Amino acid sequence: MKGIVHAGIAVKDLSVSIPFYRDVLGLELIKEEEVRKTRGEKLSVPGAVIQICVFRIPNTDTEIELIEYKYPPPMFNYGVPVNIPGQVHIAFKVNNIEEKIKQMKKAGVAFCSENYDVIKDGPLKGWKWIYFKDPDGTNLELIEEVD
Predict the structure, then answer these.
(1) What predicted TM-score, i.e. pTM, was given to this entire model?
(2) 67 and 120 inside one domain
(3) Which residue, 75, 103, 125, sits at the end of a domain?
């Protein structure tokens, strides 16, 4: 392994998810593909009709790919709990977690707890973290690293 190219997230509606990832999280929209009918079998969803868009975290090479399945319709209406096997989350680094939480709460973001937590010991001592949900219930996280 040499690294991670991108993380992919299935979303219900790109018209809702794009403003969230772009305007609320501050990611840069770098590509929005046309709807395609050609990738279903390669994705283990025969007959799938999908649309993909790609975001980049500013000043990095890190990308997030959002995939809307136009067909078939999703099996669930909201994201699964974080303790379901196979569930993943993405942690975003921020400079000031308090300010980012405040800005995101103003935008209506649902956080999993009222306040962030601070790691008490070990090599990550002092780091601040909090989980939140995107519009589809995907588990995401903010982290403020502290020296």
Answers:
(1) 0.89
(2) no
(3) 75
